[in-house]
Amino acid sequence: MQSEVMFAGFGGQGILLSGKILAEAAMEKGLEVAWVPSYGPEMRGGTAYCMVVVSDKTIASPIIRNPMHLVAMNRPSLEKFAPVVKPSGVVLINSSLISTGAGRDDIDELAIPVTEIARELGSVKVANIVALGAF
């Protein structure tokens, strides 16, 4: 079993933290994990993404060009990364900030208003955790 998840959004949305939490949870379960962060020079406000690979076997490469899953927290991230998600993959869309889908019929989409849910919980700063929990 190997699963690849990409988290993507604006810098400052907690994208890297979401991936790190998933990676640490998988390690606690005794699985092999690779966590690869990436962000632009702008950091806060720029595009940030990370890749998490979880496997019950040794991971040959932590770099995945076509992830099985995507958590897209903003429209630019959806537009950039949804085209490379593997067929039959899952894309979680933050419908609070993204009004359209990925435009593919070979993937499953979950549209969840994670920013709005976070606001109802008291802080939009926890939207990344809402998305992680929904995923």
What does it look like?
Residues 11-135 form the Pyruvate/ketoisovalerate oxidoreductase catalytic domain. Keywords: Oxidoreductase. InterPro entries: 2-oxoglutarate_synth_KorC (IPR052554), Pyrv/ketoisovalerate_OxRed_cat (IPR019752), Pyrv_flavodox_OxRed_cen (IPR002869). With 135 residues, the protein is α/β, with parallel strands linked by helices. It has a single domain, classed as 3-Layer(aba) Sandwich (Pyruvate-ferredoxin Oxidoreductase, domain 3), CATH 3.40.920.10. Helix content is 27%, strand content 30%. The protein contains 4 helices and 6 strands. The protein has a 6-stranded mixed sheet, with helices on both faces. Helix 2 links the parallel strand 4 and strand 5 (90-94). Helix 1 (15-28) crosses helix 4 and helix 3 (114-121) packs across helix 4. The longest helix has 14 residues, at 15-28. It is globular and about 40 Å long. The two termini are 18 Å apart. The model has no long low-confidence stretch (mean pLDDT 93).
What's this model, at a glance?
It comes from marine sediment metagenome. This is Pyruvate/ketoisovalerate oxidoreductase catalytic domain-containing protein. By secondary structure, the protein is of the alpha/beta class.
